[in-house]
Every structure is written in C-alpha cells, then in structure tokens.
Amino acid sequence: LSIIDTSTLGHQPMSSTNGRFIISYNGEIYNHQLLRNMVLDSFPEHQWKSSSDTETLLAMFDYFGVKDTLLHLSGMFAIALWDNQEESLYLIRDRMGEKPLYFGWVESCHGKSFAFSSELKSLRAIEGFNNPISRNALQQYFRFLYVPSPYSIYEDIYKLDPGCMIKI
C-alpha cells in the first residue's frame, strides 16, 4: 500500500543506494520529511530517486545505522530489513504496536521454514501451511478476548512486542 509515493519508484522490496540494505515494510513514517532534511544536512551529496518514506528509511539506515535511525522514527510500522554486509535480518515493530509483526516457524508441505509478516493471513497463505492452533493462545483469547504478545493463535508463530527489534 503506497500512500506517500504511489509511483513505481516507491515499490518494495527496495534496496539502499549502496546496496547494503534491502527493506520491505508495512506502515508510514510520519516524520519522513524531517528525516530527509536530516540526511541532506549531514550528506548533501545524497540523491533522492523518489518521495517515498521507504527510501527515506533506507537512507537513514545507510548513514546513521539501524539503532540510531530507530531513535528518530515517528510512525506506525512493521519493518523487515536485510543487511547484506552483516548477513542479518532485522524485524522491527513501532513503539505503540499499531502494526503487528509475526514471525516464527511455519510447517508446510516443504517442511519447516522461518517466515515473517505483518499479517497472519500472509503466513496462512504459504502453500501447505499446517501450524496447529495454540491451546495456550486460545486460552488467552477466551480470557482476554484477544491474543496478547508474544503469542499468536498458531503454534510456533509469535508476535513481536511493540517497540522491539530482533536481529537474526
């Protein structure tokens, strides 16, 4: 869903200018224009290709690093960020938890695979999805009328807590 830049230049997954990072995310960065100005103030040679907040995120990660970038973000988001240099995957959720981020081991007709998504229906769409309903999560649902973090309704699938990041 493109909100800020609906052109093809804002499509995801998107790679950073230097190729270090690849991002796919769901959400919106409210202060992305302020962050763009921050990049240009520090790195006036940076050339923008689009007006998307996705490109803004990538420039911030490139120039300021993952942890420092997260300190500056205001928005709702579930981010999957691959770092080619470190060969690491970051899964990041916004502070208020407006956008969910699910991750875990999916049992399918191809065996067990690590998967992640901002929606459970995407995980269920994996061919042969076969994770059973979690009795513990079901118990939590009947008690609270929702499934609290870190659980999801499926076994071996977890919800990242708001404001948290995991690095794999």
Which range does the strand content fall in? 25-35%
Q: List unreliable stretches of 5+ residues.
A: none
> Could you give the distance between the termini?
26 Å
- Would you report the number of β strands? 8
Discrete helix count: 5
Mean pLDDT: 92
Please state the structural category.
alpha+beta
Q: Evaluate the radius of gyration.
A: 17 Å
Succession of helices and strands: EEHHHEEEEHHEE
Helix content: 25-40%
In spatial order, strands of the major sheet run 1-2-3-4-8
Q: What gross morphology would you assign?
A: elongated
Assembly status: single chain
How does the SSE layout of this entry go?
Layout lengths: L13 E2 L5 E9 L2 H11 L10 H12 L1 H7 L2 E9 L4 E6 L8 E7 L2 E7 L2 H5 L10 H10 L12 E3 L5 E3 L1
Antiparallel strand pairs: 1-2, 2-3, 3-4, 4-8, 5-6, 5-7
Give a structural overview:
- The mean pLDDT is 92.
- The protein has a 5-stranded antiparallel sheet with strand order 1-2-3-4-8, with helices on one face.
- 27% of the residues lie in helices and 27% in strands.
- The protein is built from 5 helices and 8 strands; from the N terminus they run E-E-H-H-H-E-E-E-E-H-H-E-E.
- With 168 residues, the protein is α+β, with helices and mostly antiparallel strands.
Features:
alpha+beta, 5-stranded antiparallel β-sheet, 5 helices
